[in-house]
Structures are given as C-alpha cells and as structure tokens.
Amino acid sequence: MCETKGSSHVLEKTLDRLNLCLKSAQMGTWEAELIKEPFGAENVKWDEEVARMHGVPEGQDVNPLDWFHDHVHPDDLIINLENNKKFFNTSRQAQALQALKFGYRMVWPNGEVHFIEMHGSVDPNSSTDTRLKLHGVAKDITQEVVKQKIIEDQKNRLLAASRMAILGELSGGIAHEINNPLTVIQARAFQLIQMVETQRLDAAKIKSAAESISKTGDKIAKIVTSLRAFAHGQENEPFDKVNVRELIQETLDFCKVRFYNRGIDIRLGSIPEHLEFECRLIQMEEALLNIFNNAHDAISNLDEKWILIEAFDKESQVEIHITDSGPGIPDEIAENMLLPFYSTKEIGKGMGLGLSIAAEIMVKHQGTIQLDRTNANTKFILSVPKTQRQAS
Question: Could you tell me the CATH number of the domain that includes residue 248?
Fold first, then answer.
C-alpha cells in the first residue's frame, strides 16, 4: 500500500511540474476524438489556457467544438478538415509515428485575430479503425506570426531599396539604351516628314520607316517592362525556360555602358548557343547583375580590368562562371561575404546586400553560388538545375 501511495505521489508531482512547464511556455492541453463516419470531431476538451487562447471569456462555460466552429476562420476550417482526413486515412503504424500538427486563425469576440498552433498524438490504447483518441498541446503563436510579418516587411523594403539603388547606379547606361532607339525613331519620323513636305511619297520607304519605328518602339517597351519587373522583384512569377546566352546578354544590357565608362572589358567566353534552363527570368537577372556590380566595384581601380563570363552544360545542371581580374577574395572575407549587410566597402557605398540577394535567389532556384578559391582571380560559379521541381 505504501508503495502505491509513493508512486501516486511521484506521478502527482510529475504532473504538477509538467503543468508548470506548460504554463511558463504559455501552452495548454486538449483532447478530442476523430470519428470516421460521418467524419468529424467530438468529445473535445480544453484546459483553461487553451480556452483562453481561443477567446473564451474567463469563467464562461462553453462547448469547445461549438465555440471553435463559431469563431474559426472559414478558410482555415476547410484546410484543417482536409488535413485531419488525410491523417485519419493513414495506417495505424504511421499515425503512431507521425504527430498531428495543424494551425488556424481564431476570431475573438472583440474582433482580434489569433493564430493557434496545435500538436497532437494518437492514444493507441483508446483508438480503433473508426475512432481516434487524440491528446495534445496548443500554443497561441500570434506574437511570433506578427514579428515574422514585420521582419518580412522590413526585408522586402530593404530588397526594394537595394534594387532601386542598383537602378540608380545603372541609370546612365539605361538612359543610353533608351536614347539610341529614340534617335532612330526621330530620324525615321524626320524622313517621313521630308517625304510629305517635298511630296515625294515612296510607298516602300514609308513602309520601311514605319516598320523601323514600330520595331524600335518595341525595343524601348521591352526595356521599360524589364525595369518595372526588376524593381518589383517578380517573387511569385512562374518558372520559364530561358536561353542562357540571351539571359546573360539581356543582363549585360543593363550595365554595359557603366562598365565601358570605367574601361572594363566584358569578355564572353564559351556559352553554348542552345543551352536552356528553367528560372524566374527577372530574379536570375538580378542575381547576375549583383555579381556583375560586385565585380565592377572590385576592379574599377585596377590597371587590368576585365570580366569573363562563361556557361557550361553539366548534364542536369547549368553552370555560369563569372571571373574578374581581381586577385581573389581573402578567406576571412569569403567566409562572410554571403551574409546580409556584410560589406568591405566604404560607408555609404553599397548596402552589403548584393551577394546575399544573389545567394538567396539561387537557393530559391534550388541552386548554389560558390567562390572558386583555386582560381588566381576572383571567380564565382552559379550552378542551377535545368528543371525546377514544382512545389507539391
């Protein structure tokens, strides 16, 4: 009898400690049963903490299931219903090994929206093929969600500022790219005016001038469209098949005048004519542009100034090699150069985001960016799959 009392006392103390830990973590406990036909939940029980995080006024006795259906966000109710069905239809062995995890938004009576995260496990001793007994814990993660949203907003603002800073640096070259076709349009328009004024209308020349104006206008429109897309980042654009040679050429169109003005020789090495891969074009141009700009700043004051761009077909991968005339990057800098805000430039010259943005874009494309430390010069290797795995 004494042994039984001792075990009971130990169990009680253990439960007290567990409850104290849950309280300090602002977590609560719940239990419920999932039934197969008709599918749904019943016998739902919440402790005081879980009831509080669901917006139940203190001291008010409610039916947890009714309260949940009355206050959960309708979209989240549908999503969780489907997820719970999938969990129920897995094997008993998988259910025992796999924890049930789901989240949803609760709209409190005062209008506040709270994000709830639930974790549960199946009680094998009380479950059958048609009924699952679940026990679990819940946590109100609203503060974490809000903080993450603030961080994401700040990050997006910094990325936008970085893009605008790059466009500012490239503005001279972009103006040149637009000014040249405008000159063509003006010349062709003047030609048409001359024909009208001298009454020497030549149908073939009029058609040729009109086609030239139309073609040149399309070129300007393409430049403007690219600038708008670059400024916005195109985060959610679908992956398209892109020709590597055209990708490199279009990216260089943004910055070639800036390089020319600093006496930097741009060299195009081996680039297979028909080499293609799937990517978000604007994002990949942004990654390349950041690396090109990094090379520009690194070699602008050197006596020998050149950048070599090559591309290679590596079976399922595409590799783009960018080498500049710089003497390489010291190990202590190379270890940190892909970190956000890390910069060796003077204060006010750059935000330290260029290489980190390029690295993040490569990760989004399931690729990598690496520094080739075996090369005597500074050489970056971008490796990306030819085919992107679509998210399931």
Answer: 3.30.565.10
